[in-house]
Known about the structure:
Layout: E1 5-6, H1 7-18, H2 45-56, E2 62-67, E3 74-79, H3 87-110, H4 119-128, H5 132-137, E4 139-143, H6 146-170, H7 179-183, H8 204-207, H9 223-241, H10 244-253, H11 255-265, H12 269-275, H13 283-300, H14 302-305, E5 316-322, H15 328-334, H16 339-345, H17 351-354, E6 364-369, H18 376-381, E7 396-399, H19 406-412, H20 417-424, E8 436-439, E9 453-455, E10 464-465, E11 472-476, H21 483-489, H22 494-500, E12 514-518, E13 527-528, E14 538-540, E15 544-548, E16 551-555, E17 558-560, H23 571-582, E18 596-602, E19 605-611, H24 618-625, H25 629-635, E20 650-655, H26 660-679, E21 682-691, H27 698-705, H28 710-715, E22 730-738
Antiparallel strand pairs: 1-5, 2-3, 2-4, 5-6, 7-8, 9-15, 10-13, 11-12, 14-17, 15-16, 18-19, 19-20, 21-22
Amino acid sequence: MIKPVAIRLVAIFSLMWIGVSPAYATFPGEFETEEFDFTVPAGLESRVNFWKKVYTQYSTQHAIIHDQDNLDIIYDVVYLGERTLSSRARHRKLKPRVREIQKTLRKLARVKNRVNLTPEEERFLRLVKTNFIKASRNIRSQLGQRDRFEEGLRKSGLYMKEIKRIFEEVGVPEELSVLPHVESSFQLGAYSSAGAAGIWQFTRSTGRRYMKVGYEVDERRDPIVAAYAAAKLLKFNYEQLKSWPLAITAYNHGANGMKRAKRRHGDDIVKVIDNYRSRTFGFASKNFFSEFMAALEVSKYPRQYFPGIVMNEPFQFTEVPIEDYVHISTLVKHFEMSREEIAEYNPALRRPVISGKKRIPKNYSFKAPVDRDLNLDELYASIPEDLKYDKQVRVRWYTVRRGDTLSTIARRHRTSVWRLKEMNTIRGHRIYKGQVLEIPGKAYKGGRTRIVSVVHPKPDWGKVVIPADLETVQYRVRRRDTLTRIARNHGVHVSVLAKMNTMDDPHSLRPGQRIKVPKPGTDFKLQLASAASAKDSQVETPKMAVQMSGIQSDENIVVASTTEPLEKGSVVEKALSNIASAFQLNRNRHAFRPVKFVSHDVEDYRMGLIKVDFDETLSHVADWARLSVRELRRLNNLRRRGSRIRVNQSIKVPFRRTTPEEFERKRQEYHKAIQEDFFGNYQVEKVVTRKLKKGETLWEICNNVYSIPFWLLSNYNPDTDINAVSAGASINIPILTDSPS
């Protein structure tokens, strides 16, 4: 019989079933650590004081404009307003003030007679003292965190006692337990644009070293299981670096990067911060240890900084191992818990399980409220055997071939067209060769999961004028025809055909449909209701609302007559390019290119060839193929242990222990999980086009400028080789904002 237990026991059990690699197994007292008293090192006082101000003085309604190297220099604190602004809205609001400060600093660099300075100029003079041009380029803004930090302190009461016990068990200083204040402010659902999840902000690649990170379960979101992983990672960092300040910095920057820093500058954290230069050692990495020290001091004396704060009571629950694959609706009924309660007490269960698309995995440690006095052993035993399964729900995938239609695919897989369209968010009846479709299973009812849909309001072609004497003929729509293709073949703009055929939805063409087109040989130019200026050669259509997993983005779509060639780089040409890119994700592009075979008779198995996609590593490929990384390295002549695979690289994969279908299923679920998590937290606000500057890299654009993942950038530039973009090339950039959901 399972008895109610505190949070402690579940964490111990979790380690038993996640299968932690022996390379990272840790036991108390296995190694000796340096005596570090966690006081602020001399030389870091100004940095730590700055972050204490961020955490305790300024809320998220304030932006601090400061020098990014000398944090003693604070030029101004701007009040952003009561409502929460997106990052781009904040940037727009701050930009005028930043320009004023830059202008003042440049003036101070030019002025020799500094007698008649304004009070602000005198203050800047005292702050900066010298090298004002450099200072004008060194301006940065930081959002205040007081309200978030205070809320994080309250939430920390749920887990802090158990986290400290875990850190003591693993053998790392309990002071390190405050890291979630720096990483996430103890927000369980925290998710970064780089794919880091949970209060400890593990990326997928790092999380997989210590936890189960998959399509059904993502233990990065479980604060206790992830606490064990964080303790093990910190201990691993220390074993590599022999310095807790460096080990803590490595939590953000990586152990290998800090090894390089130590080789160049020793283990003095102040010297490393001041002198280490690396493309990836930016502001966040330089300040990570200082942020930690500030968070440590504030969390030690919470009532000094936040008078009257009341901590949440420790989180407690009962648990039982789920010995079979079980549907969530079964536990809702027999455990008398709602889906919301199950999701709250089991944050590691991903949306496919909570929605009922997948079953709760076998051997999962299920948690329930301790105050409900549930005997989970007896309740689980009462579940009928026919509701317990020995296999997971199999997701089926189908790659569209030439000649396929939705009807033939649905008939072949014994499902309906509407279910196929709903699961794959297909509008109309258009599919294309190479598209990968998810095939609904028998249990799929629809309506439980939030899916991609494209909403097309009725267009208003009022500005387009069709001459009354225009001769037309009937055209029979063929398979794979689009309105754009038909318009191009007949020398008119798509808006002309839409108006001519009074189409509410230009995307609803179907094979066999007959539409009007201008008679061949007709000299027709697009006319407008108002042609007073050259600007009238552009036709504006209504906004098209894009809803993607709850995301909504509005774009003003501008079209122009195709009777005149579009000027390269013009506003119209860029707008058309941007909109094509904006809808790229809604076309259900497959996450990767399917397996090809280089041989059909290699001993007794097939040899496959795959193209590496974003976020894939040799370790992933080995897992999906049930092989060792060593075998893949040998087979593909990747001799060196440090050699990495790159996007679009061809990799041989022997299908000796699994089938290509099973390999692709696991691979699809991996990419699907990444995209579902991303679009559950972010939305594409708009798309901009920019030219790649000389010396600029896509890595810098994605990580330092826009904070977007590479796979998303690739999706918005489908005809561009992301690995070979040269200076001057135009790149479509999706601009992100937080999802309102």
